[in-house]
Design goal:
Number of helices: 7
CATH superfamily: Flavodoxin domain
CATH class: Alpha Beta
CATH topology: Rossmann fold
CATH architecture: 3-Layer(aba) Sandwich
Bound molecules: flavin mononucleotide
Number of strands: 6
Radius of gyration: 16 Å
Order of helices and strands: EHEHHEHEHHEEH
Oligomer: single chain
Helix content: 25-40%
Largest sheet: 6 strands, parallel
């Protein structure tokens, strides 16, 4: 199955973690990379183009750094415009049904911080509920997220390992593995 990778980083040239993941993803067969900030730096999203891309792929992945317990702002704008009534949900809105949505994130916080006793208080999976429910409303399955914690403190070698783990995760999604 083909994977549409929505890459969402407002300062990609300064990214270490997401760049490492993206480099690994580009080598995976069947992955189409769509760099949203490169395409739409002024937030003028080509809705028809984005909807056509969604229809052409069975799996959609949102890859981004975790910003304020969510995604960078352009992904929200993309959701608001592209996941339109009559396309993604509501009467006649069946075009995404049966597809899979996945989140691939890097966080500044360590894994332990994302727990009831940690300073972020909530497990990362709980904070991703809006993405999970968005997938559900659109009739999509929400895959188990791919997360790289404490990303700014990882060495280049550790990031390369995360890249290999990410490529495996993408291959499994592309192969239609259970999510
Ligand atoms: C505006 C902003 C908001 C952030 N919010 C969070 C957050 O809510 N939780 C967290 O763990 N890290 C947060 N971070 C840290 C980033 O997630 C981290 O720097 C990023 O994942 C590193 O990836 P990169 O090298 O690709 O930029 C934030 C960083 C910025 C700039």
């Amino acid at each position: 199955m083909s994977v549409l990778l929505q890459f969402v980083h407002p300062v990609a040239r300064k990214s270490r973690a997401n760049r490492a993941l993206l480099d690994a993803a580009r080598a995976v067969q069947g992955v189409t990379v769509n760099d949203l900030y490169e395409l739409y730096p002024d937030f003028h999203i080509d809705v028809a183009r984005e909807q056509a891309l969604l229809e052409a792929h069975a799996v959609v992945v949102f890859q981004h750094p975790f910003y304020w317990y969510s995604a960078p702002a352009l992904l929200k704008e993309w959701q608001d415009l592209v996941l339109a009534a009559g396309f993604a949900y509501g009467p006649g809105g069946t075009r995404l049904r049966g597809k899979t949505l996945g989140s691939a994130l890097t966080t500044g916080g360590a894994a332990e911080a994302y727990s009831p006793t940690g300073h972020n208080r909530y497990p990362i999976r709980a904070l991703l509920a809006p993405f999970d429910q968005t997938a559900h409303l659109c009739g999509m399955r929400y895959a188990e997220p791919f997360v790289v914690h404490a990303a700014p403190r990882l060495s280049d070698a550790a990031l390369a390992e995360e890249g290999a783990r990410y490529a495996d995760w993408l291959r499994a999604l592309a192969a239609g593995a259970p999510v």
